[in-house]
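lol ok so funny story. i was supposed to be doing the assay writeup but got distracted and ended up predicting the structure for this chain instead. priorities right. anyway since i did it might as well share w the group, maybe its usefull for someone
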Amino acid sequence: MSGDMPVIRNYGLHLTLDGYGADHLKLGDINLLFETLNELPAKIGMKKIGFPHIAQFKEAEIAGISGIIMVVESHISIHTYSNKEFISLDVYSCKSFDTAIVIDFVKNIYNIKEMEINVIDRGKNFPVENIH
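and the output, tada:
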């Protein structure tokens, strides 16, 4: 057989969480979002690159805050809409992680009443290395 054959594995795991009926005061708390993003990587075995970046939106329809933290393994982002009691979270990583830890952590912090959760395997044909 000529040529190298690539070893294939999934590139990463992507957790999306959309939460409804969350505590509107907590959703508007910039310090709480900062701390959530700052603490979450260690809870799931990821290494932070710097500190969370936060943006606040005050327009009534989209009032809330958004934040992202870059991790060696990829990123974690959270968007909140305090007037709508809604939170949207993404954790994307090339390293496997325990999605239940993320879900419980965020649900408890923001008192989320109802959630939509998706876990997606990304990069299903990602070549890891060539073998002979």
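The mean pLDDT is 89. The CA atoms of residues 24 and 115 lie 15 Å apart.
back to the writeup now i swear
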